[in-house]
Every structure is written in C-alpha cells, then in structure tokens.
Amino acid sequence: MSTILEKQLADLQEKYAKGLLDKIDALEQAWVGIQADNSNTDAMRDFHRMAHTLSGSGKTFGYAAVSAGAQGIERIIEDTLARRAPLAIAAAKKIERFLGHLRRAAQSQPAHNVIASNIENRLDQAFTESRTILVVDDDPNIRSLLKIKLEVLGFKVISAYDGQEGYAKALSENPDLIITDHNMPTANSDYMLSNINANNLTRNIPSIVITAQKIGNQRDHALQRDLTGRCGAIAYLEKPVDFEALLQEIKRVIPIRRLP
Q1: CA–CA separation, 163 and 187 (whole Å)
Q2: In this structure, are 209 and 240 located in the same domain?
Q3: CATH code at 102?
Q4: What separation in angstroms does the CA of 10 have from each of 45, 116, 195, 213?
C-alpha cells in the first residue's frame, strides 16, 4: 500500500475518532427531545436514524462496542414504532444505559484500523478509469472511505447522501454500479432501487447493498431476498465491508483485469 494511501486512511480514521463524541452528543440531545414528547414518531425516527448511522460507522472504524450499543437503541425504537405506542418506561431506562455505554466505548481504542486491509492496485487502468461507481450513504466518513479505496483502483467515484439524491445521481450520471447503504434518511435503498429498477433509463444499473444490521435473522434474510429480487441488487453485504469481498462483487459486473 502506498504511503499516500496510508496517510489518507489514517487521517480519515483520526477524523472519525475525533468526531465520535460529537455524534454521541447529538444522539443524547435527540434523546432529550424524545423524553419531552415520547409520542413524537418523527423525533423517534430521527433518533433511530442517528443510532443506525452510528452502528454502521462504529463497526467500520473499529468501535464494535459503540456499534453494539447503537444497535441496542435501534431495536428498542423499532419495536416502539412497530407498536405505535409511546416509549415504555422500561425501554427508556434501557436507552439511558445504552447511551452511557456509548460514551465509555467511544473513549476506548479502536479494535482495528481502516489501513489494515489489502487493496490490490495493480489493475488494468484502461478498464477502471472509464468506470463510474455511485456510493450512497448518509455517513460522510463511510462515503470517504469507499471513495479513497475505489479511486486507488482507478474508478471514478461519485456520491449521494440518501436514496432520493442517489436516484437523481443515477439518472444524471448513469453510473456503472451503485454501492448503497440500506437505512438512510428521507429515502432508503429499497425506495431508490425500486425507482431505478422501474425506470427504463436506469434499470440496467447493478447495485450492491451494504447494511449495519447483522445478517442472520429471518427479517434480514427476507430483506436480502427482497433487495436482490424485487429491487435488483446483486449482493447484500454487512458492515464493516470486507473490501476484498466487495471487489469480487464489483468484478461480477465491471470488467477488471489484473496486470501481468
């Protein structure tokens, strides 16, 4: 791996670590609003989205305990929204414990760093330079990480914040591939991919969905089947994304040759 690439990745990891407590502060502030009105479903959805983003980025940047705590909050809010009822007292106490856990976990050292991954940069540039990949994720750190790693391979990388902007970029840029997070504000990947699949101008663009949720329960398998069936995604990968596994999926739809 080149020194320049190592520095880019190290700077990105340091930036994430420095901003982690700010993310938790924002989550706690959102929690204060919910406590003031625990029947506000819009506020709970925003709180859920923030926790989901933290669970995905925590996994990616080596803070597994942060990710686990954020996922615990996600599950509580999901259950509450599904019941269409105010947040129960017992559930609120659990969220308080998870928030305290998050702050402690954020002050620990990451279990791994984003530099320690093999990136094969001896690829035929004639095949990759003309290929555009659209990365859709509401977390700017994950967008930056994928952009750095994909550009090393020669790809042109464009990005979008959520499914709504992603669909607009797919229409205007006609990328060769879309790599998208699943749960995003305003419009999830299923919204974006359903629209892309229904439009003759974009329906042939392949897509890969990545998620912070652990792939293993029945609901996630059902979602995976839906995204790879109705929405046309070619793969469904769990964060933190194994870059070599991602590259294998990319090779399925974009012709790449290794140099001799």
Answers
A1: 5
A2: yes
A3: 1.20.120.160
A4: 33, 10, 37, 26
Supply the DSSP symbol for 120.
Answer: -
pLDDT value, residue 219: 45
Element (H, E) at 193: helix 189-198
Taking a C-beta distance cutoff of 8 angstroms, is the pair 153, 128 a contact?
yes
Task: Enter the pTM of the model.
Answer: 0.82
Q: Are residues 136 and 227 in the same domain?
A: yes
Q: How confident is the model at residue 249 (pLDDT cuts 50, 70, 90)?
A: confident
pLDDT tens across 210-224, in order?
887 665 544 444 455
Condensed to tens digits (0 to 9), the pLDDT of residues 1-54 reads: 578 888 899 999 999 999 999 999 999 999 999 988 877 888 999 999 899 889
CB atoms closer than 10 angstroms to residue 257:
11
The parent domain of residue 172 ranges over 125-253
Is the Cα torsion angle 27, 31, 34, 38 positive or negative in sign?
positive
